[in-house]
Amino acid sequence: MTTPIPLGVDPGNGAIKVYGPHGGVQLPALVAADAQGAFGSSPVIRAAGLATGKPPLRVRTAGGAFYLGPGAHDWGRPVENMDHERFTGTPEIRALVYGALGQYLAKIETQAEAESPDLDLNLSLTVGLPIEVLTGDEETVKATVAAVRRWSEGAHAWEADGHAYVVAVQNVTVTLQPAGALYDYLLDDTGAFIPARKAHFGAEIGVVSVGMNTVEALLVRAGKIVPGETHGARLGVRRLLELCNPNELYTLGELDSQLRAGKLDVTTALPIWASEVMGLLERRWGAKHRRFAAVILVGGGVKLLRQQLALRFGGKAYIPDDPVLATARGLYKFAVLSQGKQRG
Asked: What is the pTM of this model?
C-alpha cells in the first residue's frame, strides 16, 4: 500500500477546512437536503426580468443528496445541527467532509496521483474536535473517538457536481482543534520546529479559538496541556448571529452568508458579543496571559474581534496569516511530523 497523503481536517460549525501538501480549502458549513430527492429533478424556474442563481455545490452520498456551501439554504431544506453528536457521522457532516475533500482533490486532478476524474486515493486524516467533545470521563471520550474513527476510516465513495470520487482512509488521528493552532505556530510545512519558536514549547503558550459554535482557550506548559486552564464555551460567532436575529426570521446559515458578504448589520450586536467573549477570557485566565510566551488567536471570529483581542493580549498576541485555515494547516503539519517519526 502506498504512503497515505496526510490531511488536516478541521470540521468546524462555520466551515469545514482541509489542508494538505497541495494547500488548503474551506467549505462554509451550510447544508440543505435536496427536497426533490434527486438533483436532476430540481425545479427550473424562469420569469421575465428575473434570474435564477447558479446552484451551490451538490453532493450525493449513501445518506442522501445535499446542497452545500453558500446559497445552499436557497435550494433545499436547511439542515442545521450544531450538536456535538454530528462529529460521530451524521449524514450532513459526511456530506460536508466529502464536499471539502472533493474540493481539495480537485486541486490535484492534474497531478500523477489523480489522472482521471474518478480519483482513487489513499489518505491519512488528522481531525481536530472541540475541547468540550474530548473532555469528560475517560470512557465517554474513548467512545466518541472510536465513533469518529469508525465512520471516517475505510473506503468512501461519493459524487460532487457530477464527479465520482473514491478514496480509502487508512488511519485517523483525533486531537483537540486548538492544538492544531499550536502546531501551526511551532512547525513549518516539513513538520520541523521553527527555530525562533522552539524554545516557546518549553514555556507556556496560550491558544484562543473563536469559532462558529465555541470559544476555546487552551494552555500548554512545557509541552503538556494544563487541564485547569483549558476550557470551551458555546459563545462563538453563532451568539453574534443570534443577537442579530431576535425574531428568528433567518436561519443561522442565511445570517452567516450575509456576514461573510459584509451585508449583515452588526453595529449593535458586535460590542455586546465582544464584551461577552472578553469577559469569558477574563474569568478563565485573568492576567495570567502576561507570563505566556505567546497567545495564538485563530478562528473566523478572530477577524471580527481582532482589535479587542489584540488590545487584551498586547504584544503576546499572535494572529496567523490565515486564522481560519490555521488549525487545519497545523493539524497537517503535525501529521507530517508524525509520519517522519514513523519512518525514522
From this structure: 0.91
